[in-house]
Amino acid sequence: MAGQRPAPPGPPGAHFLRDRRLIARLAERSGAGPGSLVLDLGAGYGAITAALAGTGARVIAIERDPRLAARLRRRFAADAGVRVAETDLRSVPWPGREFLVVANPPFAGTTGLARRLLGDPAVPLAGAELVLAWGAARWLAAARPRDEETAWWAARYQIRLIGRVAAASFAPPPATDAAHLSIRPRPLNGLPGGPRALRGLLRAAWRDRSRPVELSLPGRLPNGRSADALRGAVRAAIGARTPAAELTADQWHQVAVLITGARSPASPPQPAVAPRTGARSPAPPPRPAAAPRLSASQRWDRDPRPPPARRPPQAPRPGSHRPRTAPARPAAPINVS
Questions:
Q1: Which residues touch 26 (CB under 8 Å, ≥6 apart)?
Q2: Looking at residue 14, what is its pLDDT?
Q3: 194-205 vs 249-260: helix axis angle to the nearest 10?
Q4: Same domain for 209 and 148
Q5: pLDDT value at residue 99
Q6: pLDDT value at residue 12
């Protein structure tokens, strides 16, 4: 229509969020702040990136389109806490430390993004605030997962549909409304053997969705635990002879926690108790697999800002008997590439 500003160009499935109030809520709800590492996936023109930078967090703006990436670099050239990565969401390496995601990614790549973020237990995702197509958001936040893959995601992450986002909040507007989706890790992710217990349970239970879940429980348990006691606890938690097709994401999580032997899904890991004198020390837990080594250009979790200067050591007062200490070494410069 004559007189209207044309919608900005973008890759297929891209609808750029322009609702400033919603963008501010996304940044606030994420909990981002100084010390946080946040990824804006499909940063576009940088509306969400700017809101995140205002929290004091370190922000990685990931954008595939060369023109948009160049524009982002110009916009945030003076902000040392923002880095622009011109790369594809389907192949971007995740940081090796905990990170948040606050993003309005292209709607066309929702399934692939969910697989990359939620599928691998080694990904240190601390939380996400996403704006997705309405249908995709309802599918991910459904109380009862529709298949084994979505059960694997939803039992390890609490996925909540926060609210509807009107199509008019985007440029160009999508054909239908979108949704604000919030994702947080469940306690199972922090339990030793938790994801492994869930994976085995799901593989056994989804072979026959009509089969009672209690029949898919492991027959042998570590540490001399009773399989009969586990079956009784599962029946008490989800009901007797409940088929896999009827379990909610919360119930999948609860059953997996029971398999690990934890006292309850909400119970934090208990501190180790010192062994008695003369008793054999328990074997240490297995060390987690090392994260893949990234090239210098891919180490986005490093802070590009210089470290704070250290105070020089003070000379002891006359007459004091404190031992003399060597002066502190200056902090090594951070490799920024």
A1: 48, 51, 102, 129, 131, 180
A2: 78
A3: 120
A4: no
A5: 98
A6: 58
Q: Is 41 helix (H, G, I), strand (E, B) or coil?
A: strand
Q: Are 14 and 104 in contact (CB under 8 A)?
A: no
What residue numbers bound the domain in which 243 lies?
Answer: 194-260
* Domain total of the chain: 2
Sequence letter at residue 299: R
Residues 31 and 176 in one domain: yes
What's the pLDDT score for residue 209?
A: 92
Is there a single domain that holds both residue 175 and residue 206? no
Rg (C-alpha) for the chain, rounded Å, is: 25
Q: Does residue 43 lie within any of the structural domains?
A: yes
Between 294 and 61, the higher pLDDT residue: 61
230 and 102 co-located in one domain:
no
Distance CA 298, CA 155 (A): 30
For residue 294, give the H/E element and its range. none
| Residue 114 falls inside a structural domain | yes
List, in order, residues 6 or more apart from 199 with CB less than 8 Å away: 152
